[in-house]
Amino acid sequence: MPFQITVHQPERILEVVYPPQPSQQDVDEYLSRVREIIEGLGEWSALVDQSQLRVMSATMVAVMAKLNAFAQLKGMKRSARVVSTAASGLQAWRMTKQAMLNIPARTFETRDEALAWLKNPDDE
After folding, report:
1. How far apart are CA 76 and CA 54, in angstroms?
2. Which residues contact 71 (CB under 8 A, 6 or more apart)?
3. How far from each other are the two terminal CA atoms of the chain, in whole angstroms?
4. For position 86, what pLDDT does the model report?
5. Which helix (H) or strand (E) holds 79?
6. 79 and which of 27, 46, 48, 122 could share a cystine (Cβ 3.0–4.6 Å)?
């Protein structure tokens, strides 16, 4: 199953749902597609649902960290991640740290909580 990408235009939120075990082909296709989308967004926020993801290799964490750094340069103003386990929360934190994000970034247990935070920028 590949990554699911949805752009919520009115709110300028890019939502990505990670598959449980992405293949290298899934990752390559995702990177190509999402970079193209990001280029056309202007200012936007990210909602990344990693709740199905089992484990990311160190290589994949590094690749996604680079994508996050690119995203910040291309207008990402906030980043919300949905995780289901402590391990996936740790991976999300490592990715954020490696990307050296200078934007508000938080981890949530549900999509609804993450979306509410993104829609209300005054909730830090």
Report:
1. 26
2. 38, 46, 79
3. 34
4. 67
5. strand 76-82
6. 46
Q: What is the pLDDT of residue 95?
A: 63
Q: Where exactly are the structural domains of the chain?
A: 4-119
Please write the tens of the pLDDT for every residue from 53-98. Answer: 877 777 887 888 889 889 999 999 999 999 886 666 666 666 666 6
The amino acid at 87: A
- Dist CA 94 CA 24 (whole Å): 20
Spatial neighbors of 87 by CB under 8 A, at least 6 apart, are: 55
CATH of 4-119, one of 3.30.470.20, 3.30.750.24, 3.30.70.260, 3.30.420.140: 3.30.750.24
26/44 Cα distance (integer angstroms): 24
Q: What dihedral do alpha carbons 73, 98, 19, 23 form, nearest 10°?
A: 100
Predicted model pTM = 0.87
**Residue 44 structure tokens:** 């936007």
Nearest to 74 by CA among 100, 38, 102: 38
